[in-house]
Amino acid sequence: MASDKMVIARNTTLLVSAEVVTRALGALLTILIARRLGAEKLGLLAFALSFTELFGFITRFGFRTMIVRDLARHPDRTGPVLGDLLVLETFMGAAVLAAVWFTLLLMRTGADKSAVVLVSAGILVFSSVLDVFYAIYRAHQNAVHEVFNKIGLNLSVSVTGVAVIWMGYGILPMLAVRLVLYAVFFMAGLRILVSRYSRPVFTRRTGFYAGLFRSALPFAALGIIVTVNTQIGTILLTFFKGESETGYFSAALRICGVLTFLPMAFTSAVLPAMSKFREAGDDDSFRQSYEKSMKYLFILVIPIAVSFSVLAGPIIRLLYGSSFGPSVPMLRILLWMLVFAFLNQAFMVAFSSMDRESVFVRFQAFGTAFNVILALLLIPSTGGIGLCAASAASQALITILSAAWLSSRIPGVHPVKIHARALISAGALGAALLPFRQHPPLILLCVYGLAYLAMLLAIRTFGTGEIRMFRELLSRRENTA
């Protein structure tokens, strides 16, 4: 049991580290594109990636979750599963390229823009196959191969992207180099699978494909809903307001996107424990875990939202330059969307632990429909700000629906009481930041973070048991080091 826990902890640490590195590299490349090529080209790239991502459900379709679950139970089936999925992904990848090309013809998109979108679609196809490889690595509980492949790929993409943009080339040459790199790392990943796990076995089992689609359907439904919710706004914004406005929106969104790995890492650590408590009928431990999840995520996100909102102007100028002034109000709104998104991660863990994922899927569907309708109403008149408002409102709706449903089934949890002290601390210190906005934002953010933590301790936000737990965790780290 102890060895299993060590494997899980190691894999979680490696995967979170890979996610951090990946997002940081992507953010740096976005900043360079914005500074060298401007908002219009950044908007073109954002449109191409969002447009092709809408077709991503064809190649992904929830297969990754199924692979991890089934191969973890039956690792001897790796060869047949790999072979059949390679055949399936080939046909589905061709379907994606054909669907994207046909849609571009119907939209009468210009040649240059179509080329950017089609190359992005090719990258999506390779990315989907690599996700299958990563799922097989995870099923065998060996995250090292995934981490090396993922970090190596993203490091290569970022370095070559910086070089291409720095030498004065545009978006299309950068994406063409990226496509070649994805093909190279696809071959490298396949070689690892063949040499370390199993050769692909092509069984051509019709029943396998039918069963796979049936089993993956619930996961595919959630994936489609989430994809539409996150990508449709960028496409609508480009359609109504053009690529420059989309570039301003994309610049603000990228800052928030870098921070979203935090609740994902937290979820991977909390979900197994809450599931165990629920399965054992330990309602008190389950309730406490749910309450602590909400508390820590809110304590984590609220100072980010407040401090970044106050310093939004200096942060945008530091990262993108003064020409990206329209991104400032968008960033302020998206930061509060991030608050609701963090809380929704805690709700998702609770729903999953209770085996009620279908309820959360319905709430996500309501939120997505609300987001699309509100975006269609607001974007034509208010542009990117309207899209940000629609995104924040949709996340808030999911939060309200989830909190109401869970409150009736997990009694004794008081969200207002949990969040009040953190909100007061963050708000008071945010007001204190206002006179100093002309100072370097990085220094201000560090000072704000330390003051926020000190204030939380001063007003006794953490109980004696929580402080003891933190000390034990730190002492374990020191002993391990």
Describe, in plain words, how this protein is organized in 3D.
By secondary structure, the chain is mainly α. It folds into two domains: 1-204, no CATH class; 219-481, no CATH class. Helices cover 87% and strands 0% of the residues. It contains 19 helices and no strands. The protein has helices at 2-37, 39-53, 56-60, 63-73, 78-107, 111-139, 143-166, 171-197, 206-241, 243-259, 261-280, 283-310, 312-320, 327-353, 357-382, 384-407, 415-433, 441-458, 464-480. The two termini are 22 Å apart. Residues 1-5 and 472-481 have low confidence and may be disordered.
In a few lines, what is going on in this structure?
The chain has 481 residues and is mainly α. It contains 19 helices and no strands. The chain folds into two domains: 204 residues, no CATH class; 263 residues, no CATH class.
Strand content: under 5%
- First-to-last CA distance: 22 Å
> What's the helix-strand series?
HHHHHHHHHHHHHHHHHHH
Strand count, sense and barrel status of the largest sheet are: none
Structural class determined from secondary elements: mainly alpha
* Poorly predicted ranges: 1-5, 472-481
Number of domains: 2
Radius of gyration (CA) equals 23 Å
**Helix content range of the residues, please?**
over 70%
- Mean pLDDT reading: 79
What's the total number of strands? 0
Question: Which features would summarize this protein structure in a list?
Answer:
disordered C terminus; 2 domains; 0% strand; mainly alpha; 19 helices; 481 residues; disordered N terminus; single chain
Blueprint of the fold:
Blueprint: H1 2-37, H2 39-53, H3 56-60, H4 63-73, H5 78-107, H6 111-139, H7 143-166, H8 171-197, H9 206-241, H10 243-259, H11 261-280, H12 283-310, H13 312-320, H14 327-353, H15 357-382, H16 384-407, H17 415-433, H18 441-458, H19 464-480
